[in-house]
Design goal:
The protein has 13 helices and no strands. It is mainly alpha-helical. It has two domains: about 100 residues, Helix-hairpin-Helix base-excision DNA repair enzymes (C-terminal) (Endonuclease Iii, domain 2, Orthogonal Bundle); about 110 residues, Orthogonal Bundle (Endonuclease III, domain 1), CATH 1.10.340. The chain is elongated. The chain starts with a helix and ends with a helix. It binds iron/sulfur cluster.
Amino acid sequence: MARKGALADRKRADIGLLLRKIAKMVSESKDPRATALAELKDTEEGDPFRILIGTILSQRTRDEQTTLATERLFKRFKSPEELARAKEAEVRELIRPVGFYNMKTKGIIKVSKVLVGQFEGKVPSDMDALLSLPSVGRKTANCVLVYGFEKPAIPVDTHVHRISNRLGLVETKTPEQTEAELVKSVPKRYWLRLNDLFVRFGQTTCKPIGPKCGECSLRAQCRYYREVVRPKELMLARAR
Ligand code: SF4
């Protein structure tokens, strides 16, 4: 029992060290920009409505496009009440920079109507109520909790899912499974920072294709490096 506890303690300490190393690499990268959601949190002072809409717009879209679309949208529509009354054609033009803008236009107007009709124009701050909203899945709900309410949660997008598996923190097939595993193994004090750090790390170093392992200080801890990248490097070295 004591041994189990000691192992768990060591794992927790390792996660803290790992996050510190990621934070250092991100801050020293050539492109240390904030993610679209962190930027939105800062510029809109964490307004949960804007975080919610920004997160819906960010789905399968690059950060630059999300930022552009949210700036255009919120200049014109400032509240759930205003967006609930908006004409689809106008919203569609404003958010055109993001992918799937037709579908997202309908989604953000609909979610605004539900907020006005059922939640007195306010974004709810608990998971179940958030999940009852249209266009809101677990990732979006967790983003609203973290970036809109500063409540500890772990939003798992494609970067968090990929990096957690590469590092060997989890061994999972879906973002939902990754969230469930991370929630068990990562101490709560790190939850608020994890998404932002992993997303920035995924954009700058641990990219989906062609991760920059040569520049990464996590090679010694990384399962993907050990099992996939390193054997290839050795094979190439032997072939020379
Ligand atoms: S060693 Fe490579 S795969 Fe592993 S975390 Fe670093 S960049 Fe990603």
